[in-house]
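User: Second chain of the day. Same drill as before.
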Amino acid sequence: MINAAQTISATHKAPPRADTRSKGRGSAIPSGAVTGARSNARHHRGVNAMSQTGHLHVAQQTEMDVLIIPAAGATSWTGRPRRRSMMSTFCKQLNIVIDMVISLRGWKIALLAVLVLSPAGRSVAGQDQGVLQTGSTFRDCSECPEMMVVPPGHFLMGSSPEAWASDLASMGFIGGWLIRRDVAMTQPPHLVTIGQMFGLGKYDVTRGEFAAFSRETGYAVTGGCTVQLEHKYLHPIGASWQNPGFRQTDRDPVVCVSWRDAKAYVAWLNGKLRDNAQMGHHARYRLPSEAEWEYAARAGQQTTRWWGDPIGINNANCDGCGSVWDTKGTAPVGSFRPNPFGLYDVLGNAWQWVEDCWNGNYDGAPLDGSAWTTGTCEQHVMRGGDWSNDPWVLRSAMRSKSNIDQRANYLGFRVAQTLR
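Assistant: Same format as last time:
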């Protein structure tokens, strides 16, 4: 354990160096629906969860009015086609153009959304794994992460100033400054289309999975690790993914790994794909894009967090989440219930690296779900919050950044996979 006498003072939950550990919010709807919605940031109350029925539905009392129009034969996240008559299906095989003008308490966003209807029951054929449906899982090798098939769809990424009003009211001067900074980083809200299903780790990459990579390749993680203890940041000798400053099992998320370390792990997984000719339905492993991450974290929900607006009790691991791991370190993956897409620990426990270079807001961000590969590429985006953050940090739209060589005992990753 780390001696508290070694601590280095830090400001209110502020991360070391370039790590700003910011926060934010957006929304997600599975394929076959277009939504206009608002998003959020750190510690917040907001909209009610939307229904996933096959009917036109307008969510009430949201920060943005939400309009959902399901497409004919649309597939829900579970991969089950909605029931519609043949006549209805043929009649609705048209592109629907939606002009949504959304009032945001004093300012307006006009969205022109074009929904291109897609066939029901989309699947990915494999040579020995049959058909992958959205909501199904697969594993490419015994050491490989378990992957979940995430459906295509549309969602509104980002957040509005109004989404942060309750946080501003409850925070002091320093906290208010942090929130205003975070608001700017999650604007403007923009409609993003995830055009095809993709694989995403059911859990964060675990310490055991990273250890298998290290043993097989001899990959050495050098350069130390920042250790957070009681909101102070230490740089003790010997800190690493094997010694993060608290006890872990092989089922805990690996931490103290940089963006470069995560990319090296991904390259190792892709080598296993090339070595196994039976994996014909998978193209390559990679880190998820920031848009893919938020879409998957939201899992079709319009609330601050996928389980609702309040932080609740024992929904995640943070400083005030009501779990037995709060402030002590990471929890084993899968310790909390999954979101509607079947993904665990998307909020709290450990921040997660994504592919995108850092940009201070969403001006010019890709609209097709791809990674933003221009900007400040010495820093990359991280998402989700960690075991030491206050509850207001744990939001689906939260954004933060860190230097690509930064390692910290609150920072890990999960992998994505292109499917073909």
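The chain has one domain: 4-419.

User: Great, on to the next one.
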